[in-house]
UniProtKB/TrEMBL annotation:
It comes from the Eukaryota. Keywords: Coiled coil, Disulfide bond, Glycoprotein, Secreted, Signal, Synapse. GO terms for cellular component: extracellular space; synapse. Residues 79-141 form a coiled coil. SMART domains: OLF. Its main location: secreted. This is NOE3 protein. GO terms for biological process: signal transduction. It is found in: Secreted; Synapse. Disulfide bonds join 219-401. InterPro entries: Noelin_dom, Olfac-like_dom, Olfactomedin-like_domain, Quino_amine_DH_bsu.
Amino acid sequence: MSPPLLKLGAVLSTMAMISNWMSQTLPSLVGLNTTRITTSDTLTQISPKEGWQVYSSAQDPDGRCICTVVAPEQNLCSRDAKSRQLRQLLEKVQNMSQSIEVLNLRTQRDFQYVLKMETQMKGLKAKFRQIEDDRKTLMTKHFQELKEKMDELLPLIPVLEQYKTDAKLITQFKEEIRNLSTVLTGIQEEIGAYDYDELHQRVLSLETRLRDCMKKLTCGKLMKITGPITVKISGTRFGAWMTDPLASEKNNRVWYMDSYTNNKIVREYKSIADFVSGAESRTYNLPFKWAGTNHVVYNGSLYFNKYQSNIIIKYSFATARVLAQRSLEYAGFHNVYPYTWGGFSDIDLMADEIGLWAVYATNQNAGNIVISQLNQDTLEVLKSWSTGYPKRSAGESFMICGTLYVTNSHLTGAKVYYSYSTKTSTYEYTDIPFHNQYFHISMLDYNARDRALYAWNNGHQVLFNVTLFHVIKTEDDT
């Protein structure tokens, strides 16, 4: 067993904690436990030196939260806390081996006596047969005495046979104990002659550090998109559906907004199961029509682009009224800078682990994408980043951990082609494919709680699972 694998073994006991930390899994959320996502692709794992590397995903093919951890090479927390049990087991085996050795010596001594006695009995039996054959030449009295002696010895023969069998069994048992002792000794040598208390403290320290890491595990770099899971088929070719990423685990309400214009009706469902069955719980009649399909529900409020304007509206579901509205300065609207599919998708509102965002284009940035972080209460622009990617060439986009990911098309063959990090103000071209099963995507938004992409795919409401990559420093310094 190599040291990296031992290190990995040391953290397997924390996987349950990781699963509890993460948001509930998609199947329990969706109510589609019979649906499976095939994830045949594997991620190349390396033995890192800079820190823990974590590949986290909302679900595996069996619908469970998963987290693959690769430990740093120099980390000494590589011993399993069960080494004490191994040592105790080895001691017991050694004690047993000693007892067997004593029993074996005594057995071998008795066995030699048994073999000698067996030889004498066989010789006596042969003589008895000879005498019996020639019994006419012997005196009847001597013959009778010899026969009685033989009758007394005959019952010992099966006992002696069983004794020989038992002696062989003990010999085999001794050999097996010797082999087991050798294996356990080898394992102990591989683990290392560390004090158990020291190992135990190392594991406890590791678990504490991993718990601290998990608090930061919401953010990572997009590595893979799998799926989709088809949740429902409903509505027109274009629309939006979503859940609130800041809602509690017990709150799984779904909001449904059909069409990209000429509509003000928002339908609410208590859960995705109710959404699938069509059990609507409430209907909201917005004061304004919306434009496009790029709305977002965040912390109990709906954020949408008011039709034929660059005004953003914040609408509270709790009070059924508008809490705030603000014009997004210089933002193009009404199909001036839409996504490739059109549909008044000029202004895309989205949320991630960091907060609320608006993605749009301006004449000042030559029609290229602008990213703005918004104050969720006032809708004020906190900061903006100007990218060099043409908004009209983008199929869709979504934010994960402050990074904008842009697809190159809304049709078959689409992939995540470009990303822009607001943390470093840098961009890169990517190649992350995903399966556009129904050939036309008009809405694609990331939900940080579910670790999933919600999509409206040609009248199909679907979910994509995402896998993020994390590097977590193991040293105290930042």
